[in-house]
Amino acid sequence: MKSKLNKALASYSRASFSPVKKLILTSVLMVGLVGCANMSVQGLFSHYSAGMSESRSLAQQGAFSEAIDALPLGAGGNVLDEMERSRLALMAGDQAQMHDALNLADLAAKEQASQAVIQVSEGFNQVGALATNDNALTYVAPSYELGFLHLYRVRSYLEKGDLQGALVEVRRAKQIQEDAKKLREKELTLAEESASEHGISDNVGAILSRYPQSSDLLGAVQNAYLFYLSALLYEAEGNENSAFIDYNRALAVVPNNHYVADAAMRVAAKQGRKSELKLLERKYGDYAAPAKGSAKLVVLVEDGFVDARLGWRLPFWVTDSNGNVESHTLALPYYAQSRGTQPESFSLDGKRVRLDALADVNAMARHALNEAMPGMVVRQILRVLAKNELHKSISKNDESGLGSLLTSVYNAVSEQPDTRSWQTLPARASLYSVYIRPGKHELSIDGKTITVNLTPERTTLLWLSMASGEVVDWQGTLGGV
């Protein structure tokens, strides 16, 4: 059922507001102010990235424990707050806190998922959000963030030696990302319907046309990091069919990654997939089987921190019910243009080796924001128009000018961009893989030397997380090669 607020807004450009509708708009502000009790002051008069600035600054200095203490409490909601804490705990080497935060984030995400469609639907009708800003809405993590949540839960299970638990997380990650994609599609449909209903489609189109576009490459949409890890675990389990499928999914996203291509060819050869192997060899060269008795080393490297969303203000113009052209301003999030960087390299037994790119997290973040932007713009325009009508309504009979001043100030300072995102994720992930003799080997990266002990006919996974001059490593032995 459409809300009274929506009915009032729908007639904005076609008729003057009746006393009843003015009363409704006045109520919007009052309810919004009351609703702020459930929203941090930061979310009302500032935004998430501003609140995260101290924690990010400490993390970029390598002070990860202090960065955890500086996290803004409650600023992102249960899911986002715990995801931020989990990654900083990983970088601090605090496994217990990392596991705890991941579990809490997962529980909160499960609870949220059961209500997600309702929350998205109410986003265009919610009185509190139309009276304040999008920070009043529950944060719904995009699919790439949920993918990383489960990727780190995979790591958590592997650290406990639980391969089956890790595989369950892999399967959950795929399903949850599909569900999140459907939810975004639902939000886009609702945004289009709401824009049409309120006669603001042209305004929305004008704003979006000026908005910086994200990459539409597959790497901005899908996560080869998760696909490759999934394939690696399936292979360790002995499920070569699923491993081949996910190696090829990863290869579709990062076609220039020769380590992924080699893994796909190896499984194709083992399974006797002659036609698939020929296709792969045409592009990547002849497949060379590993020497008998050799050991496999897989190195996953995360480095840096993903970019934070910034806020900017864009002007737009509308014609009011009296035919007057009015200028307004929207507060929207965006990502600054970042320079792409090459993956790190490292030394193995004194020889320099190359890493191949596996995931560009900045590209994923930009794509997710662009997907969410139509809904954000629709809500912003409706909110600005509602606040403006309230201001004019109060000003009309405000002899003292106090009410007009208060609403004017409130409208200006409460319009804040929604800059919420998982800001402690790595900027990128890279891969190295090789078959070498069993025994001890030394790997040197970013000033740290790590010893790995390889077992014949087995795969050893070395997982490195790097940021701010610090390297956190975990290694474990998986299944056969």
Automatic annotation (TrEMBL):
Q: Output the InterPro entries linked to this UniProt entry.
A: TPR-like_helical_dom_sf, TPR_rpt
- Provide the alphabetized UniProt keywords: TPR repeat
Instruction: Supply the PROSITE patterns for this chain.
Output: TPR
- Superkingdom field: Bacteria
Q: Where are the TPR repeats?
A: 224-257
Q: What is this protein called?
A: Uncharacterized protein
The protein's organism comes out as: Enterovibrio nigricans DSM 22720
